[in-house]
Amino acid sequence: MKHLIIFTACLLLLSIKFYGQTTEKSRFNALSFEVGKTGLIYSLSFDRRFRNNFGLRIIAGTNFSSYLKAFSTFCGGYYLFEKDNNAFELGIDIGYLSVDQIGRSQRNLAFIFPDYSIKTYYTNLNIGYRKYMNKHLFRIGAAPGYSKSGPLPGAYISYGITF
User: What kind of architecture, by CATH, is found in domain 27-162?
Assistant: First the structure.
């Protein structure tokens, strides 16, 4: 797990180094803080958009609970239907979700779905809205998923910087 985090950080730094942007290209990379997907999971997201409105995204996150520990990582693509600084986003992600249930006393307050121990790969569909503002990016949307244990509801909200 530690190696995956180090690899992701190196990949982000290399992409920033090799894709240094001028002001006219400043909306093609974004680093965002995201809350959501499969519950109250806090994530860091790197987003790379190409000139043809296709893009790729890498997301890694966790929650900070003492009784239900969750870790998720996603990699996926999207397409933007853009008009001015607003865009409708449609994409698909492949993710890994690990949830370890440590205690049962506060199970109803988990804010994570599923609220039981599981380790699974799954896919989810992203349907959302994206707004570019000067050097900032705001995203909100739904991200329902499906794993071998069944459907997983999801929604997210994200705010970040573009470069």
Answer: Beta Barrel (2.40)
